[in-house]
């Protein structure tokens, strides 16, 4: 690119910062409500919600309440929601059969939301951890996470979600071969138009702690997820994973966590130019909320600034627990 900077005082950058109007005219990236996917937590029961202490302001909701949230989110201009179940202990088993039950909490919620707010885009999470007795995303045998057996289970889970009416499936398990297996099952079972938003570059991160509290997996989890989630030191590997997932039939890709991995977002977008999403995860949310609660940060400012950073890094959208709050502010 040709240099375009004249020497001072010919060039004075402050000219284009002098008023809100001029700043708005030359702003390179903006945040809109269309950028949001809102992750929500489900619990069994009626007309109830429970607090998640490590995620102030976020609750687990019964399906009727989530349907109300979907109406509200839709009226705020939020196009999509992503569903995560808190599974009761008796439904967590070694074979994880609840994961592909037609009437599990997620699949019931998909039907209920689609019934009430058909325009809402419903994304799901595909991994065994909410149903697994040991908190892992895959089957465990002698301390090892089994790949291919897990993929078979995930395909069943994907088909059950597609049948319930999900628009975008979100495999978050990081097994090899899952995208291809899901795509071919969706094709052959008549779900050609169900999309896959793959958790492609998902790192083994300390920032997932509050989420694991929210879905009740923290106490169950034995060991860590380092043999299947990515190593925090890697960047080239993320590009190879994106290429692999696209070849296998992913429609959209995701980088997770978000803020500590904006360099990966930028590389992915620049290299592939595909729909690129980031997940501002539970720990990022908790970190901001904790500082705000202490009066150390201005919540509104840092929330919007953190979300705009994803757009600047090349993302097309963001999964964020701040979605409704941010949308309210953006709507004025
Ligand atoms: C489960 C899953 C996790 C998150 C989304 N799906 C946790 C994990 O991998 O342990 C984390 C989301 C968050 O922290 O907000 N496969």
From TrEMBL:
It is an enzyme of class 4 (lyase). GO terms for molecular function: porphobilinogen synthase activity. The keyword Mitochondrion does not apply. It comes from Marivivens donghaensis. It holds the Pfam family ALAD. Belongs to the ALAD family. Homooctamer. It catalyses: 2 5-aminolevulinate = porphobilinogen + 2 H2O + H(+). The keyword Lyase applies. InterPro entries: ALAD, ALAD_AS, Aldolase_TIM. This is Delta-aminolevulinic acid dehydratase. It comes from the Bacteria. Pathway: Porphyrin-containing compound metabolism; protoporphyrin-IX biosynthesis; coproporphyrinogen-III from 5-aminolevulinate: step 1/4. Gene3D superfamilies: Aldolase class I. SUPFAM superfamilies: Aldolase. Its EC number is 4.2.1.24. Keywords: Heme biosynthesis, Lyase, Porphyrin biosynthesis.
């Amino acid at each position: 690119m040709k240099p375009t900077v004249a020497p001072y005082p010919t060039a004075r950058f402050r000219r284009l910062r002098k008023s809100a109007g001029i700043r708005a005219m030359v702003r390179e990236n903006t945040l809109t409500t269309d950028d949001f996917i809102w992750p929500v937590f489900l619990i069994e029961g009626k007309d109830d919600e429970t607090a998640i202490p490590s995620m102030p302001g976020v609750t687990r909701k019964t399906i009727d309440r989530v349907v109300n949230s979907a109406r509200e989110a839709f009226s705020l201009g939020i196009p999509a929601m992503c569903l995560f179940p808190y599974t009761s202990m008796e439904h967590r088993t070694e074979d994880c059969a609840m994961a592909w039950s037609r009437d599990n909490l997620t699949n019931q919620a998909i039907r209920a939301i689609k019934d009430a707010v058909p325009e809402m885009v419903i994304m799901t999470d595909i991994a065994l951890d909410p149903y697994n007795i040991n908190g892992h995303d895959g089957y465990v045998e002698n301390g090892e996470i089994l790949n291919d057996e897990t993929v078979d289970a995930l395909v069943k889970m994907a088909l059950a979600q597609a049948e319930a009416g999900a628009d975008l499936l979100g495999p978050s398990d990081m097994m090899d071969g899952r995208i291809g297996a899901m795509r071919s099952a969706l094709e052959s079972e008549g779900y050609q138009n169900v999309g896959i938003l793959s958790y492609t570059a998902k790192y083994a991160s300390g920032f997932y702690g509050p989420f694991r509290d929210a879905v009740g997996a923290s106490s169950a989890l034995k060991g860590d997820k380092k043999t299947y989630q990515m190593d925090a030191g890697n960047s080239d590997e993320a590009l190879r994973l994106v290429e692999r997932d696209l070849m296998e039939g992913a429609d959209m890709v995701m980088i997770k966590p978000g803020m500590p991995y904006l360099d990966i977002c930028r590389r992915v977008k620049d290299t592939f130019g595909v729909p690129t999403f980031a997940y501002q995860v539970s720990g990022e949310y908790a970190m901001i909320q904790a500082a705000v609660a202490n009066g150390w940060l201005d919540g509104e400012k840092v929330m919007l600034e953190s979300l705009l950073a994803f757009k600047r890094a090349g993302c097309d959208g963001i999964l964020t627990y701040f979605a409704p709050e941010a949308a309210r502010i953006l709507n004025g």
